[in-house]
Amino acid sequence: MSARTIRRAAERRAKKLAAKAGIPFQTVTTASPAVTTPEVVEPQPVAAEQPLTAAAPAAAPEPEAPSSPISEARLAANRENAQKSTGPRTDEGKAKTRFNSVKHGLTGATILFTNPADAQRYNQHSFDYRHLYQPIGPEENSLVQSIIDTRWRLTTAPLLEFAVIARGSAAIIETNPTFWNQPENQTDLFLEVRRQNEKELRNLQLQEHRLARRCERDTAQLQRLQTERKANEEYQLAEAAKAVLLAEHRNPNVDAVPVPGLGFAFSKERFQAYLRRLTPAQEQSLLKQALAEAVETPKTRSAAA
Fold it and tell me: Is the four-CA dihedral 128, 149, 155, 215 of positive or negative sign?
């Protein structure tokens, strides 16, 4: 490709760029000499950003409009309004707004009551379950309290679901009165309520299933702990009864017999109730075991020596 062809291609490209930019294009021509000597020129790529015409001067930046200062009256009004947006200050206002974020009360750390009657029913509910399980020790008491709260929340979940459906039905009937008192439209009304409140109803069902699983887990753990405790207590009572029966058998006129484990593994009342519960056959069985253990103990000690 000759130098002339390259120059003309560059001029055409520059002319197109100038036409797009709205800048008048001026062709730069040079006088050719009378005698020219052909030369081999390597083709050089011409960038589109470098036209042969002179570049237009850059436009000067427009001066920014000065911002209007806020008036003193507007500033005073803003400050006055800011003093009013501090939230509740009185105890009554704080008591009203502290439950604003509560949705259903099924996952909170504490039980919430809307009226004193609910608090009384909860107290009776707690008394009934404590009387049923009769926990002993901190671990059993903690599990029983968890069961009490979970059972209470499980009884509340269906009421919350009913409230959501009732509220949704009232809203739909208000906008579409044809659903009111029309038995043939009740199915459509129920489906529409479920559709509009699907997320809230599904959340209630998930919380209800979670609470049911937690209640089953706590109940199973409590039963295991109480079974182990009762078995250990029965063993301690039987050992203490064998010691008392053996002492009375060896010395019928003894007034007081020391009871091993009394006050630690069981109470005095519990031990006396256990002795009254023993039948004569059970007493003879425990005495035989105590005599056998008393005979075997010296042999074991002498053998060890």
Answer: negative
